[in-house]
Amino acid sequence: MFRSRAYFWFVAPAIILMIVILIAPVFVAAVLSFSDYNLGNPDFNWVGFKNYAALMKYSSYKKMFTASLFYVFLVVPISVGLGLGAALLISTLRFGGELYKAVFFLPVMATLLAMAIVWEFALHPVVGVVNDVLRSGCDIGWLHSLLTSSWLGFDPAQSWYGNACADDFPLWLGDKRYALGTIAFIGIWQAFGFNMVLYLAGLTSVPRELYNAAHMDGADSAWERFKLVTWPMLGPTHVFVVTITSIRSFQVFDTVEALTRGGPSKSTYVMVYAMFEKGVKQNLLGVGSALTVVFLAFVLILTITQVWFVNRRVHYA
Amino acid sequence: MTAHTNSFGEFLKHVVLLFGAVIVLLPFYLMISYSLKSPAEIESNTGGLIGSQQIMTDRRCIKEGNPPEQCEMRPIVYNYTAAFKEAPLLRYMMNGVLVTVSIFLIQVVVALPCAYALAKLRFWGRDVVFGLVIFCLLIPVHAIALPLYIMLAKAGLTNTYAALVIPWTISVFGIFLMRQFFKTVPDDLIDAARMDGMSEFSIVWRVMLPTAIPALLAFGIFSIVAHWNDYYWPRVVITGDRDLMTPPLGLRMFKSDLDGNEYGPMMAATTVIVTPLVVAFLLAQRRFIEGITLTGMK
């Protein structure tokens, strides 16, 4: 009868699409990573591990791994920390919490590519607002002495701000010392509201009684209550937020492609951008596929670590 | 603790949060402000939020041989008309709507029956299929972009609407989410429908779909926001054909065409692209936050 077979028609399209669109590409990438395949040329050779060896050998790929890892190590702790901080402040506010929440969530919603372009204008070395504001701070005595620590008796010329005032402020995206940090700043700006929302959800699930119990045990200061109750009870949220932020920041592309194209001198040459440049722009699909495989391995390691943590460490209840 | 220290603490929290809010809102403020001001005001950072709105002359318009009096306009008019004229912004927006809506509809058509079967029907291999769904959840989209691009190129599909939509037709996350939701629907409801002689097919679309509206709404917000904002995939499969570009890709092309002096029109285009989602978010914050944090489960 039709009924007994209905499941087949319900499940088959999804299975076929999963296999063709999600699983087959992984194998295609794995196979092509051992070749010098390119589009437009029907012949290609098997080159063994040459593509992988290239990833180990050339300095541009070393710079790629450095840039990607550095970006992740900048964005993850700061955006998680800011997310947690914002959530803690907002959840204890008497009024206005909803408003801050909406404001901090705005960057998550807004088209990242578009906002990256706005940041690029804001960070423009000559006409940009950021350097404009920083420059005008140099002429305000108390601000200058605060930011250069000269009010503590330090020499202003020793500080970053004092130097920048005397000389000039950075080119930000155009300077290889600052470019990756600037891209990371935009990443943090975009991501921390997302983490904040996850932490706010986590905070509502901390039982009130635990705070009373901690109070009875003599945990009087807010810091002690945080250390004894809030932080450990947020365990599952921590694992979750850290993993998802790591995976996402590992996939950074939009800001790099639009603002720096991996430069200056490959300082922002992150993995997904390298994949795009080698595979799509330069039609070096063998190398691009090898990059894809390495990238996939990184992400799977992150995900498996998360699952392992969730199963092992964070069961308090 | 006294009330006095409490309100001082509250005050401090507001100071910190306000400082954060200023930084978060800075680019939004700049975007709107630049989209209203004249080139001179943008370059000198003067004019406050909306600029002086003095009549300016459109140099390009003069170059095209129009009489000068036709080329005089206020900066706000100049910026927004230029945005729609120089870049086919309307076309980009239409493409964006077409692509995001088709993706969402196909995702639902594929995922809903599958989720229903996984949640409510008993059949041989069900656990295997569910295992496959969970496995596919682990595959990050960026990792399969390159092989997918090769497959689409081999099929001659790059630079088509199909290329923009096909990779997203299957949402394993959607299947997973809907399955979890259908698990909570009482079996009695389905049995009653079967008693009434409904086919499994009409149970999916006439019984399960209406019960799933809240979950679908959250998933829809997630899907539409993700694909309206997506830049990576359109950048890979659309090369040069402007008629197919989605808003972020179109904006990127606009940026590379700039002769350096067109910040105003550029920011006007940015504002037009960012506004729909931001306004929708402000109108239905709770739903949006729910929908987007769903990715958390991914």
Quick gist of this model?
The complex is a heterodimer of chains A (317) and B (298). Chain A is mainly α.
Description of the structure:
The complex is a heterodimer of chains A (317) and B (298). Chain A has 317 residues and is mainly alpha-helical. Chain A has a domain of 219 residues: Orthogonal Bundle (MetI-like fold). Chain A is 72% helix and 0% strand. The longest helix of chain A has 33 residues. Chain B is an all-alpha fold. Chain B has two domains: 72 residues, no CATH class; 209 residues, Orthogonal Bundle (MetI-like fold). Chain B has 16 helices and two strands. Chain B has a two-stranded antiparallel ribbon. In chain B, helix 5 runs antiparallel to helix 14. Chains A and B meet through helix 1, helix 3, helix 4, helix 5 and helix 9 of A and helix 1, helix 2, helix 5, helix 6 and helix 7 of B.
Mean pLDDT metric of chain A:
84
What oligomeric assembly is this protein in? Answer: heterodimer
Number of domains of chain B: 2
Tell me the greatest interface: A-B, 86 and 89 residues
Q: Evaluate the radius of gyration of chain A.
A: 25 Å
Furnish the topology, listing elements before pairings.
The complex is a heterodimer of chains A (317) and B (298).
Chain A: H1 2-32, H2 50-57, H3 59-91, H4 97-109, H5 112-122, H6 129-138, H7 141-147, H8 160-166, H9 179-204, H10 208-216, H11 222-233, H12 235-250, H13 254-259, H14 271-281, H15 285-312
Helix pairs in contact in A: 1-15, 2-15, 3-9, 3-12, 4-9, 9-12, 12-15, 14-15
Chain B: H1 3-36, H2 39-44, E1 56-57, H3 59-63, E2 72-73, H4 75-86, H5 89-120, H6 126-137, H7 141-154, H8 161-165, H9 172-183, H10 187-195, H11 200-211, H12 213-229, H13 232-237, H14 247-257, H15 263-283, H16 285-293
Antiparallel strand pairs in B: 1-2
Helix pairs in contact in B: 1-15, 4-15, 5-9, 5-12, 5-14, 6-9, 10-11, 12-16, 14-15, 15-16
